[in-house]
Design brief:
Elements (H helix, E strand, L loop, with lengths): L1 H28 L3 H87 L1
Length: about 120
Amino acid sequence: MNDVTGLERRLTAAMDRIGRAVASYDTAAAPSAEEDQARAALEAQVVQLKQALEAEQTANVQLRERVDAMKALKERQQERISELEEEAERLKSLRADDREELDAVIAALEPLVGEGASHG
């Protein structure tokens, strides 16, 4: 019987220690009002930061689209400039051809003009 009584005392002491440990865990696990406020503030800050990140990502996508559009516009303008430069060179060549033809006509007319002046 002494063994049973001793065992009961030991079990009771162990149960008391377990009860105190559980109570201390409950106290430690339960956040205080300050901790709740701090956590709420941090969660609000996280939400704000996520929103700011989303806004920045949206702006980044829009900027990329604008840059792509500007690159395409630049490419089209460069192509048009090349076309206009080619046209200018073609016109210069035509002008030079016309100038040569006019010089040939003038050279052919000079003797006639000279004859007409001496007969006059």
